[in-house]
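Model: You mentioned two targets. I'll fold them one after the other.
Researcher: Yes, keep them separate.
Model: Target one:
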Amino acid sequence: MPFGFYFRRTFVSFGDAGYNLAMPKILSILRHRQIFLLWFGRLLSAFGDRFFDISVVWLSVQIVGSEAGFILAAGSISSFLAGLIGGVLADRWDRQKLMISIDIVRATSILTLPLAAFLDEITLIHLAIAAAIEGALGSLFDPALQASLPQLLEDEQELQAGNALIDVTMRISQIFAPGLAGFLIAMIPVQHLFTIDAATFIISGLSLFAIGRKFNWRPEPSAETAIGTQGVLAEIQGAFELVRQHRPMFWGILTYIPFNIAWAGSMMVGLALLADGPLDAGAQGYGLLFTAYGIGSVLGNIVVGSMTIKRRVLMLFAGQVVFGVGIILVGLSQSFWMAAVATFLAALGTPMADLMMLFMIQSDFPASQVGKVISFRFTISNIGYSAGLLLAAYLFQWLAIRPGLMFLGILILMTGLVGLIRFRSNVDQNPIRSA
């Protein structure tokens, strides 16, 4: 039996609700007014986020040189610390009001930077505080956003496409925002990228406000809801117990530790070492490899988001297998273009895994728990990502560049294969939601 036929039968359907070459599902859902407004705000703020990162790095380099990375670390640490709290807020408060409030605070915080630059008083501490605030608020915003999508898109296939649309928007900004920022810096002072970023958050808040109040923005309080620190901790523990009862979800979230170790080690460190060393492609080559990854991930989101997935759990682990194979091929690449094709292939696996995970959270758990489960996944991912960055230096010293990349690829390949074998007979259900 041809593999393509088996893949379609097992994982996907190409019927009327399936993939449409003329109009991918993630584009067709923009006909919904609420989704267009949400997407438009996220598109602008995604570009604004990239402008913020570029501006912080540039100004920090001007002040402290090579130690500028510590400023970005402030944002990463605050993002990690705020992760689980963001889920609690998303499951307790009105999500529309929460997101609008966060956008307002973001815009206000960021506007202090161009003002300080105008007064010639911008400092490293100011940049670090702004980065920390931005990182923390992002961790509060994202769970509320993703927990709101099931209320804005009740059809399951459209919900899957909505997740893909939001994700592909973020990835598009990663591809095109750096070039656009360079173009703008040639015309305006770099600090005014902060001004543009603040304006995107204002527009995002207005877009959220324009969606209106006809949707159910506030989840029903769960029985475990309580006030104070103990109440927050009890909610987090309760969400963890729900995840633990959902065996495929629990295993899938745990695999995000090796997955993100492999992703951070290979994409953030390994590709740079490969481009600078064996491939002799330099910084430009590293950028082009990342562009190949970005294009692959965008294409993967469009395709996966437009499919009707029959076996979501298996698709999740199949995505890990595809990513692992791609990274192994990167390590085996003897030329730049071979590495670019392999990076593109690896990127196709990430939406297969990420979109299935997010959709399972939104569809399998009660609305009052979705935000916390999303935050739990986010926290686990951060642990893996941070560990990958810390371990990468030792790994590539021990195994050299190509063997190190192959080791990371094999790590996630084996993780995905174990998941496929363990849950090969799993039939997608909603065990927690229906409980």
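Model: Target two:
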Amino acid sequence: MKFLRDLSVWDSASRSEQESAVFLVAEQLGSDFRVLDRQEIVCGDQEHYAVAFLHQATEIVFQLIPGGSRTVYEGFISEAPERRRVEPFLLARFPVTNRVWERGTRGAAGEDGDHPKVNVQPQEILDWLASGPKGFRLPSENEWEHGTWAGTNKRFFWGEDPDPRYYWYDKNGGEETHSVYEHESSPNALGLVDTLGHVWELCAEGHGSGGCLWSHGYSFDLQLDPPLKALENLGFRLAYSLKSDS
């Protein structure tokens, strides 16, 4: 998967080289997944060839996230920021919804079935993951950030200023969660939807990332301290590891 080891290498690869990498990933994933779509996505100053895989039993859509590295700051001020590496992996296009939580499919109707699952204890999330399909997990904070910003150094994945087309925050979020599909036409350049805003997303280290629909428009580079209880504005998104030797 040499073309997937770094996002800049992925972008500079030919389409045939990219398709060869996609074939290797599909072969590694096996019959549990199938390639769902491929599309060139432009968002802000980024343009990537975004590839989605469908987990067939659950109908969860995962985006292929090429690897790379990010500068990570501890808190608001850091005299020695770190460069941390991310290996290629899959990250769900949407936060886990009520319907997915109940092990249903998108076709099973429900008034708020397509809304993010919230009000669940962090330990319940871990138990749910353990009882579900093999390999589903929480992303690390570094993976989550790498996938969310999709290669840009801008404040948001689309630019420098708030834009209600891409996220729910205090100016447009209202009092209740929304269907995850409402922003499907405004993904980031890797195909991810609602990473910023809507609900905080629990990461493997125990922090919530991304802000929520009640957050101030510029506060989305902050983290929610490790939550010790269920919160009405805390959800999560699934990740899936890839073998690096393919």
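Researcher: Noted. Anything on target two?
Model: Residues 59 and 217 are 32 Å apart (CA to CA).
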